[in-house]
Amino acid sequence: MALLRKDIGRYPLGIWVALIALTLILLAWIMQAYSLLDWEGAIRLGIQNESFSGEAAERAIADVERGIAIADILWALPITIIAYIGLLRKKIIGFIAAMMVFGVCVYFPLFYAFRLSMNFEIVLAAIFLWAIPSLLGIYGLWINRNLFNTN
Amino acid sequence: MIETTIITWIIAIFGAITFLPLFVAQLVMIFKPNSQKAKDLIIGKGEDWRDKTHYKSALAFAWADLIIMLPLYVLGTIWVFNGQLWGYIIWISLGFLSIYFSIVFWVFEKEYTYKSVGCIAYFTYFWGFFLYWGIGAIIHSVIQMSI
């Protein structure tokens, strides 16, 4: 796809696609941060699905979701920020960090889709907001990989 | 072309020791999800699914691991031994995922798995190896790429 190599302003379109995907992903991490601060409020907003005040099965899956939220904030969020800054400065560290973040953002929508018990709207949102933009981001970065220097 | 070192070999072998049992367990989970073998491998010896949600989560992790983690491990390792930069980039990505899941599982599974398998197994092959491999692979790959 030569289109993704076409320069639009300072960067090729493929890099812009990756930056847009990272912006969408940052929104996900903001939602996760909010969930950790007020889990029941996040359920009311539709960000989370399972409550800690429900039955045993619901509490168990809420435990999984809290684990994912903590990992997102402690590990994925800082890497996303590194990816953002690195891509803007055309550094290889940004390229690598973005690939790492995109990997997680393809993995989890797949996990949600296969789990089946997840609310269908959340699965769709995860696929359209994170998985597809991440796949496009991976492709956009890959075909522009020669732009990234290692200095 | 990036030359492999003795550390590269150690990380590759440690990766095989860490990930291959996981991939085998996930294959058992996909093909025989309700067998005692799958439960023994995924939850712990003699354990049972806590409920349908627990079972479905384990099945979802199995599919996602085999679709994402297995190809990353195989491709990364092949390219690393071909001396290609992209092998190390994939190792870094897999290392990132490995550390990420160590945090996820520390929060939600430790309470059940730690009691079931004990301290030594938990901090080695059940959980610890994934964290150690992730850290080792990232550090080694960054060093190799910067030489």
Detailed description of the structure:
The complex is a heterodimer of chains A (151) and B (147). By secondary structure, chain A is mainly α. Chain A is 75% helix and 3% strand. A two-stranded antiparallel sheet of chain A has the order 1-2. In chain A, a hairpin with a 2-residue loop joins strand 1 (7-8) and strand 2 (11-12). In chain A, helix 1 runs antiparallel to helix 5 and helix 4 (92-115) runs antiparallel to helix 5 (120-143). Chain A is elongated. Helix content of chain B is 83%, strand content 0%. The relative contact order of chain B is 0.15. The radius of gyration of chain B is 16 Å and the shape is elongated. Chain B has 147 residues and is mostly helical. Classes of the chains: A mainly alpha (151), B mainly alpha (147).
Shape of chain A: elongated
Characterize the main sheet of chain B. none
Q: Which structural class should the secondary elements of chain B be placed in?
A: mainly alpha
Helix-strand pattern of chain B, N to C? HHHHHHH
Number of strands of chain A: 2
Percent of sequence in beta strands of chain B:
under 5%
Which stretches of chain A are poorly predicted, pLDDT < 50 over at least 5 residues? none
- The helix tally of chain B amounts to 7
Q: List the helices and strands of chain A in order.
A: EEHHHHH
